[in-house]
Amino acid sequence: MSHKSFGKFLVLWTGEWISSIGSGLTAFALGIYVYQMTQTAASVALVTLCAFLPSILLSPLGGVLADRFDRRLLMMIGDLFSACGLVFILMAVLTGEPALWQICLGVMFSSVFVSLLEPAYKATITDLLTEEQFAKASGLVQLASSSKYLLSPVIAGILLGFMDIQSILIIDISTFFVTLLTVFAVKRKMQIIHKAKARQSLIHDLKEGWEALVSAKGVLHLTLILSVVTFYMGFLQTLFTPMLLPLTDSRTLGTIMSISAAGMLIGSLVIGIFSIGGKFTSVLAISLGFAGICFSLTGLSTNIYFITLAGFCFFAALPFINTTADVMIRKNIANETQGRVWGMIGILSQLGYVAAYALSGILADQVFNPLLREGGLLAATVGRVVGIGEGRGIGLLFIVSGLLIGMLAIVIPRIRSIRVLE
Asked: pLDDT tens for residues 19-37?
């Protein structure tokens, strides 16, 4: 296409990077705020689920719209209105201690409009770049996305030392306007490539997206495997804070999370600079195996330095998993259906997160934590290895989850439909 420009991509990427940092500030601060307010992992999981579920369920619709209309305009609309949900939470906090349902409602509203943004953003990358630039761009996109885990926790941990949740929300809301400006700058320099298809129904477009995904069997199989991976990763995202808060304070927690996520920075930079030349299936399998081992190690000890090192290694493997999957999918789907297919991939691959968010609080509070409390069923056996007390059951859950992720590394090279995607 004649409008491919890495410079325009970098402008767009910068805006999304800033937005990612702001979103990470709110996610970290709200997680601590809700846990301190309710003292239950289930409440943290519920807020996480509400923040995630709408964007996943609506992503196929967002993908259809991304193929019908100007993708940059959709990104601007998604950014602007997703900020409104945060404004609602801010108003609730300013008028007194908000109820849990108010926080859930605010993050759900914001998530609805994120469903417009994500497929449009992914499809726009294809608009702007050549195939040779896909892997490098994917590394940079993951670098921006990782900022919510790398930079945001340590920044939020410091800010919470002299700021309250209201100030964090205001900072996040302001980042949306920076993102709007960068998307607008790119939009002005591009012709509208995707025009509305008024004669074709949304249902028809959704069906086309599904058929395009199913026809590429390897892409479908890879997507389903990614859904299993995200299921176990959802436990880590939701329960890392409840596992560590009994061991340390919020500022140290932010530092641990940021140092751990620095692995994602290193992995993304390596891919962004050197790229991955080939053997995507092998790299995917090795990365999954390594990530599974490190995931298990995060739950093995109560030593915060050991947990931080294991977390760092786990996050270092994620960019290789994401990039290999991203490139194999992107190269096997036609550009004119990219928005719809990415929408379908979004809902399928991330259903694992939804299931994990729904189950993690119950598993932590009702099953695993009681096993490793004083006098618990496993306190005298497994407890001698992983420790006993509040949060150690979550550590056991992490050990089991990591081992199951590692098993996928053995399965993937044996699936022919995935191997041929290269």
From this structure: 888 888 888 888 888 888 8
Q: Is the pLDDT of residue 349 over 50?
A: yes
Tens of pLDDT, residue by residue over 53-99, are 887 777 777 777 777 777 777 777 877 888 888 899 999 888 887 88
Domain ranges of the chain: 6-188+205-417
How far, in Å, CA of 277 to CA of 216, rounded? 22
CA 136, 139, 145, 147: dihedral to nearest 10 degrees? -110
More confident residue, 206 or 101: 101
Distance CA 74, CA 201 (A): 18
Output the pLDDT for position 2.
Answer: 39
| CATH 1.10.1840.10 corresponds to the domain 6-188+205-417 | no
Confidence class of residue 339 from pLDDT cuts 50, 70 and 90?
Answer: low
Residues 381-420: tens digit of each pLDDT: 888 888 888 889 999 999 999 999 989 888 888 888 777 7
Task: Report the C-alpha gap between 69 and 197 in whole angstroms.
Answer: 8
Distance between CA atoms of residues 63 and 58, nearest Å: 9
In angstroms, the Cα distances linking 188 to 8, 72, 182, 339, 384 are 11, 9, 10, 21, 62
